[in-house]
Amino acid sequence: MKLHSLLFTGVFLTFSSHLAFAQSVDFVEPKNGATVTSPFKVVFSVTGMTVKPAGDMTANTGHHHLLVNADNVPNGAVIPADEKHIHYGKGQTEAEVKLPPGKYKLTMQFANGAHQSYGPQLSKSIDVVVK
Q: Which residues make Cβ contacts (< 8 Å) with residue 65, sequence separation at least 6?
């Protein structure tokens, strides 16, 4: 009986430790497949990391970037700053986005204080239609 309890406890603690360190990003809004009117609100979320402004290189921190019709940025690569790669370096977790009418793939990419991407594991893409 004690061996069974010890095994269960070990499996539970191992499983729990993996959950505690899970890192992910998501769009709170808009949702995938949404039709929006420009300008529209984008709300970012991150789990397992802390949002800090650009320049802060504390471990397990970073800030959001919005990529418009662009793929996620490989781990360690610096995210460019242009019309397709919008930086939220003040630590913003939401923004008003203006886009002309059309279909768009929006990718959220989380990166460290030096704008170095955390890679595909901390990115998320959705499709939206702007009316």
A: 73, 79, 85, 86, 87, 88, 108, 109, 110, 111, 115
Question: Can you read off the two tokens belonging to residue 131?
Answer: 């009316």
What's the pTM value of the predicted model, to 2 decimals?
0.84
Which tens digits make up the pLDDT trace of 32-62?
999 999 999 999 999 999 999 999 999 999 9
Lowest mean pLDDT among 15-29, 85-99, 100-114: 15-29
Rg (CA), the chain: 18
- How many alpha carbons fall within 13 Å on the CB side of residue 35? 1
Structure tokens at 74: 């490989």
CA distance 68 to 82: 10
**Rounded distance, CA 33 to CA 47, Å?**
23
